[in-house]
Amino acid sequence: MSPTTALPTFRIQADTAVAAALPPPAAAVTLDSPAREVMTDLTRVRAATTTPGTSLDLAELQMIHQGVRMLFVASELPAIQGLVTSTDLRGDKAMRLVHERGARRDELSVADVMTPLAELDAIDFEALLHASVGNLVTTLRRLGRRHLLVVQAPTATTPRRVRGVVSSTQIERQLGQRVEVDEIASSFAEIERALI
User: Fold this and answer.
1) In what order do the strands lie in the sheet with 122-124?
2) pLDDT 10s per residue in the chain (196 long)?
C-alpha cells in the first residue's frame, strides 16, 4: 500500500466497548526467587484508586473493572489516605457498621470501611531488593495480612512514596500454590471490634 493511500473507515456501533489493558503474564517463581518479581511496581502499573466518599457497591465495581482486589483511597493524588480491599467491602466491618448505625449497606462509603494509612504495614523498597519471595511469605504470615505496601525513601527528585504492593494472591498466582495467611488483629481497635 502506498503511504499516500488513506485507510478505509467506518462508523462505530453503539455496543462497542473499550479494550481493557491486561497485565503481562507473570513469570513463575519459587520461594528463593527475588522478592521484586512478585511486587506490583507502581512506577510501571497505574495504581487503582477510589475516593473516600465512593459507595461500597461502586468501589466493588471499580475493583471488578480494574481486575484488582484492593484500591488506594485518595481525595487528591498523589497523597493517599489508606486502602480498601474486597474483604473490607463485604466483610464484618461493613456488616457491623450497618448494625451499629441502624443504616443500610448502600449508605456506607469507602471511608467507613477503609484501613487508614497509619494502620498499614509496609516494608522498605531497599530491603525488598535484597529479599526473596520466601521472605515476603514469612512477613505476610507473621503480620496476618494479605497485602503489604512497599515504601521507597525520598530522593532528590521524588518524595517518600508507595513504590509497590505485595499481595498474597499475586504470590500464589506466580508460585502456583496456596499461601496460607491467617488474618490477625494488629491494633487494640481491631481487637475491640472483633470482640463486639
Assistant:
1) 40-41, 161-167, 147-152, 122-124
2) 888 888 887 787 887 766 666 666 678 899 999 999 999 999 998 889 999 999 999 999 999 998 888 999 998 877 889 999 998 988 888 888 888 888 888 889 999 999 998 888 899 999 999 999 999 999 999 988 888 999 999 889 888 899 999 999 899 999 999 988 886 654 444 444 444 4
**Main-chain phi, psi angles of 178, to 5 degrees:** -70, 140
How many angstroms separate the CA atoms of 142 and 136, rounded? 10
| CA pair distance 103, 24, nearest whole angstrom | 42
d(CA 34, CA 154): 23
Is residue 167 within 8 Å of residue 136, measured between CB atoms? no
Distance in angstroms (rounded) separating the CA atoms of residues 174 and 39: 11
- The alpha carbons of the chain give a radius of gyration, in whole angstroms, of 20
CATH of domain 35-191: 3.10.580.10
